[in-house]
Write a structure and sequence with these properties.
single chain, mainly alpha, two-stranded parallel sheet, 5 strands
Length: 311
């Protein structure tokens, strides 16, 4: 159960592929869907005996659709069928820890909570996933993936799988490889925009924003505003720190030590008062981008206004 579906899918897939042999699955493996089944049906199938096998596997996907009746599974959880491996995939939510079912599952089975990663944890997750497959990736390349793909682990994993099909094992995943094979520009992305604005590199920031204006579907204004708001909020926190050592800054801001220098440079270019003004302007532009207090403003005009307000 939990808000992160990636691990729920991975675990249920592993069980479905490894508990039974291919010959045994025909009679002893079943997949049910929460929208199309009921708790009574799940219990009925779970109580069946396996045919010509020691175990049977019943996988219930999208079980969150049974949230109103899932507690009725408690009697079965109290005395589960020993020969049945029953897998309940409860996405985007959790069982009520105060109720009987939660306590029984913990007692008689295994309960795994799949928690959503924070944005500052995803780059390290990417590095670990690739290391397990025999690849390496630099901090910049990992951060580009996070900036452009967000925190959706399934989406990131799918893009990495496509990339690894053509990259020899042991090779480093670079920004150039990401640009060539995933379609994320190594020069024109929110990561580079954030860096350019921090350095007050107006020509570079202007080029990136012009690229965004010409490719609005790949670079939504609302995403750019959100990421810049996070950056300048972190910069405000940076100004409030007494200890500006890389280790302390990385810990307090929740960023990789590799990127601490960007905040040091930006802090010189944006005093605390200016950072506060920028955050205010970003909120105003966010509302305009959503049509509040402004109508029919193109993304190009919003991006131009963004650059003027920030610089």
């Amino acid at each position: 159960m939990g808000d992160e579906p990636y691990y729920i899918d991975k675990i249920s897939q592993f069980i479905a592929e490894n508990v039974l042999t291919e010959e045994e699955r025909g009679f002893n493996q079943m997949t049910l869907y929460g929208k199309e089944t009921s708790v009574d049906s799940i219990v009925s199938n779970a109580k069946r005996y396996p045919m010509m096998a020691e175990k049977q596997v019943v996988v219930v996907k999208e079980a969150q659709h049974l949230s109103r009746t899932i507690e009725n599974l408690a009697p079965y959880a109290e005395q589960p069928q020993p020969s049945t491996v029953l897998v309940i995939c409860y996405k985007y939510g959790k069982l009520d820890k105060r109720k009987k079912l939660y306590k029984l599952v913990r007692k008689t089975g295994v309960l795994f909570e799949s928690k959503k990663l924070y944005e500052n944890q995803v780059a390290d997750w990417i590095r670990k996933i690739l290391k397990g497959k025999g690849y390496t990736i630099g901090p910049k390349a990992a951060q580009i993936l996070v900036e452009c793909l967000g925190t959706d682990l399934s989406k990131i994993s799918n893009e990495l799988e496509k990339l690894l099909l053509i990259v020899p094992s042991g090779k480093e995943i670079t920004p150039e490889l990401i640009e060539e094979n995933i379609g994320i520009s190594k020069d024109y992305n929110n990561f580079e925009l954030k860096k350019a604005l921090g350095e007050r590199n107006i020509p570079k920031a202007s080029r990136i924003l012009n690229y965004f204006a010409q490719n609005p579907k790949e670079n939504p204004f609302v995403v750019t505003i959100s990421l810049l708001h996070t950056f300048f909020t972190q910069l405000l926190n940076y100004h409030g720190l007494q200890d500006h050592s890389p280790k302390n800054v990385a810990q307090k801001l929740g960023v990789s030590p590799y990127f601490v220098d960007e905040y040091r440079v930006a802090a010189k270019n944006y005093p605390m008062k200016k950072v506060s003004q920028v955050i205010t302007q970003l909120r105003v532009l966010d509302l305009k981008g959503k049509g509040v207090g402004a109508t029919q403003i193109s993304q190009m005009d919003l991006l131009k206004e963004l650059l003027v307000k920030l610089i």
